[in-house]
Amino acid sequence: MPDGSMKAIVCSLLLLAGARGLPPAALPQPSPLPTPVPVASPETVSPLSPAIRLDSYLPLSAPVRLEGVEENASGLAFKPDPGTLYLVVNNPPGIVELTPEGARKRAVRLEGFEDPEGIAWLGGDSFAVVEEKRGAIAIFDLPPGADSVGKAQAREITVEGDLGNSGLEGIAYDPGSDVFYVVKEKDPKKIYRVTRKGEISNPWPAEAGPPGISDMSDIYFHPPTGHLVILSHESAAAVECTIEGKEVSRLPIDLRQAEGATLDGRGRLYICGEPYWFQAFEPGKQ
To answer: Cα torsion for 71, 93, 78, 172, to the nearest 10°?
Structure first.
């Protein structure tokens, strides 16, 4: 019943009671209106703080030797369709497609490339690698079934040239912002944010952190959290950090010279190490 109608009835009853000399308490009282339930506004809802939580991860198996890789396993990327890994080898330059268990599916020659150290999947058939000494990113397509890619087919972005053997080691791709994150190994350590137009900035001074990292051998961008995973073979650790360089979690790595790291859609972490080692990890209970 509308509030106005209820008030009119009550007033009528009060007038009648006054005419008959009855006290108001003797009249039937209206039921109280229900108390509105407060609805949380967006400002009062506590925001989630998602994280990968590498400190919860457990190895799926002991390290395995990669079939058909003799040396120089240098970086990893995951492509969700068909659900395989792409391992870059720096010498001789090439890519090996692997199953998630580390079994070899095909080998691809990188013709004209020089010392590729890291690899990232960009979507579709597009990939990017970094060339350590030349200090450059090379972007190219790798169609299913191809057994070679020529440098003439690649688009190049120079990050910082002539870096020597402590140059660019890893590359990650943020699909939401369409930017790359690239790490320089050491002397000094550096992290670069690079656009496709070649605009370069440094998100934070890498020499200042994360702490306890003496070198950076690879980097991965995790889209669900917006966090980075930085791999260090000298410090034997994978470190989750924000894009400002603040450490969130850390996983000790018992793998000889860990050089490459990536995650798949299930949250599994894959790491390769020189000369030919491979190991997978999965999230534990948190």
So the answer is: 110
C-alpha 246: how far from chain center: 15
Q: CA-CA distance, 110 to 235, in Å (whole number)? A: 30
Q: What is the DSSP letter of 208?
A: G
What tens digit of pLDDT does each residue of 186-207 get?
999 999 999 999 999 999 999 9
Are 261 and 220 a contacting pair, CB within 8 Å?
yes
- H/E element holding 97? strand 93-98
Report the candidate in 259, 267, 253 with the shortest Cα–Cα distance to residue 51: 267
Which residue's structure tokens are 């890789």?
69
Residue given tokens 């939401």 in the structure block: 176
Angle (CA) 128 131 133, round 5°: 165
Q: Which of 228, 286, 281, 229 is nearest to 254 (CA)?
A: 281
Domains and CATH numbers, the chain: 3-44 (no CATH), 54-282 (2.120.10.30)
Tell me if residue 260 falls in helix, strand or coil: strand
Percent of all residues in the chain with a pLDDT value above 70, rounded to a whole number: 82
Strand partners, 26: none
Residue reference for tokens 């050491």: 186
How many C-beta atoms surround the C-beta of residue 265 within 10 A?
Answer: 10
**Which residue type is seen at 21?**
G
Name the strand (E) or helix (H) holding 86: strand 84-90
Tokens of 201: 């900035």
Of the ranges 6-20, 85-99, 163-177, the best mean pLDDT one: 85-99
